[in-house]
Write a structure and sequence with these properties.
The complex is a heterodimer of chains A (246) and B (232).
Chain A (H helix, E strand, L loop, with lengths): L5 H12 L12 H25 L14 H18 L3 H5 L5 H37 L5 H9 L2 H25 L6 H18 L2 H6 L5 H28 L4
Helix pairs in contact in A: 1-5, 2-5, 3-5, 3-7, 5-6, 5-7, 5-10, 7-10
Chain B lengths: L3 E12 L2 E12 L3 E5 L6 H8 L7 E6 L12 E4 L11 H11 L5 H10 L13 H13 L5 E5 L7 H16 L4 E5 L3 H4 L5 E6 L2 E7 H8 L2 H9 L1
Parallel strand pairs in B: 3-7, 3-8, 5-6, 6-7
Antiparallel strand pairs in B: 1-2, 1-4, 8-9
Chain lengths: 246, 232
């Protein structure tokens, strides 16, 4: 087929990785970005200095930040679909000479890239925080810093493992909202709530959080989540193809 | 001997109780410029969405370029969607690069030539463009493609007179030397009627009147006058 090859899919992927703002939304100037960055940095430095000098801080708890990153990816993924409609670009997107599967796959991969960037930024900032806290605190040693870094690998790895499911879920819900199957959204959330409660009541999430888990069960859960992500992407492309409400 | 590029046979499409397309039968000839006209809700945009596979008919048969419309046929169709906007974070130059990489048949050199003709700044991001500039950019994205079928859904919607003139000039310039089929829906009939070879009037999702533009002009004075009569 004319023009539809891997090279053009790369171009589509590059297009999807570009950050798209809501059309008509005023852009924040570079100066304001700088002001916010300086404010954030100063607040982090002051708080870290204060707590490091006044208390013996348990640095490993800062890794809890990581549990939020997959949900950020989830939100971005819903927005990735919603913005096509909101910005009036949906006609261009859906009239591209690519199968619905490729269109969804490009958005999914773009979300994975964004998630990876977010995780890397979070990882770097947390390490910097740990290094600074260790440097100024009299109660923290180099050994504490090593333990702190080692305690971060699991949440980071789980973050990366959770991205496919949360990105797939976000894209699916974004598409579902624009389809004639929109009412099924409520059913989906009920099902999701039941599943979440079930896992919570078994103490499964708490176990993973505290580092008490069966590696085999965890690996199986990750693989199942990836299969679920694939099914969600297939369902999304099917909805785009057959059940779109345009 | 003319050859059909679009054949619609008794196609229908409804949204709930609203019948958007109602047993529409129509043939569009290859190489012609056809105006699809009619009031709001006549079914023009739905018909165009069907041509590009965005919407499927509930019943009937639609053939575009000899196939059922879908993403495969879209490689040969340049489509300007109704009420479309362009991605705000792209400059015109970046948009043309995007077109070169993603849209089959897109010619960047032709796009640059048309941008100059339409006085479109290349380094300005779309979010900083006026509505008229953005409309010109989107039109270039369509007419700088060497594809057999161009479908323009309300390309002048919300555009001021001077931008409209530039767009029409560029349109005439772009299609005059190519053997492309152009389908255009517009309410600005007065300004574009000289472009049209054929005219189709839609009403309530069905063909109200169709014919050769020249013959209709002879009979009714102008397509614009005819459209006013049809609206009565």
């Amino acid at each position: 087929m004319q023009g539809i090859n891997n090279q053009s899919f790369d171009a589509l992927l590059r297009h999807e990785t570009r950050r798209v703002r809501k059309n008509g939304k005023p852009r924040m100037s570079r100066q304001w970005w700088m002001i916010y960055a300086i404010f954030f940095l100063a607040a982090a430095l002051i708080l870290t200095t204060y707590f490091s000098l006044s208390y013996h801080i348990e640095m490993k708890y800062i890794w809890s930040v990581c549990w939020g990153i997959p949900w950020v990816v989830f939100g971005f993924s819903i927005g990735k679909i919603r913005r096509e409609w909101g910005n009036g670009t949906v006609g261009w997107w859906l009239a591209l000479p690519y199968s619905r599967w490729r269109l969804i796959a490009a958005k999914f991969l773009a979300m994975m890239v964004r998630g990876l960037c977010l995780a890397l930024i979070a990882f770097t900032l947390i390490i910097l925080f740990g290094a600074y806290a260790t440097l100024i605190s009299s109660s923290l040693s180099l050994h504490d810093f090593q333990i702190f870094i080692l305690s971060g690998w699991l949440p980071m790895l789980l973050d990366l493992a959770a991205f496919p499911l949360l990105a797939g879920l976000g894209l699916f819900l974004g598409v579902l909202r624009q389809s004639t199957w929109r009412p099924a959204g409520i059913l989906f959330w009920v099902f999701w709530g039941i599943l979440w409660s079930l896992f919570s009541s078994t103490g499964w999430f708490q176990g993973v959080y505290n580092g008490r888990y069966d590696p085999l069960a965890l690996s199986a859960a990750v693989i199942i989540s990836w299969i679920a992500a694939l099914l969600l992407l297939l369902l999304s492309s099917w909805l785009l193809d057959k059940k779109l409400d345009l | 001997m003319t050859e059909p590029i679009i054949i619609a046979e008794q196609i229908s499409k409804s949204y709930g109780r609203k019948q958007a397309i109602d047993h529409l039968s129509l043939t569009i000839e290859k190489g012609s410029v056809t105006g699809i006209l009619g009031g709001n809700g006549a079914g023009k945009s739905t018909f165009f969405r069907m041509i590009t596979g965005l919407v499927r008919p509930d019943s009937g048969r639609l053939t575009v370029l000899g196939e059922e419309p879908g993403w495969r046929t879209n490689s040969q169709i340049a489509y300007l969607p109704d009420r479309a906007r362009w991605y705000g974070n792209y400059t015109a130059e970046q948009t043309f690069d995007w077109g070169s990489n993603i849209l089959p048949g897109f010619e960047k050199s032709e796009a640059l030539r048309l941008a100059e003709l339409m006085n479109l700044p290349l380094d300005l991001k779309t979010e900083g463009m006026s509505k008229g500039q953005e409309a010109r950019l989107m039109l270039i994205l369509c007419i700088a493609r060497s594809v057999p079928l161009i479908v323009l859904d309300e390309p002048f919607s919300g555009i001021d007179g001077s931008s409209r003139e530039r767009i029409i000039e560029a349109l005439i310039d772009a299609i005059s030397e190519k053997e492309q089929t152009l389908l255009i829906s517009t309410h600005e009939i007065y300004e574009v009627e000289g472009l049209m070879d054929d005219v189709v009037f839609l009403k309530d999702g069905a063909v109200q009147l169709t014919g050769n533009a020249e013959k209709l002009r002879t009979e009714y004075g102008s397509i614009y006058d005819l459209s006013k009569k049809m609206g009565d």
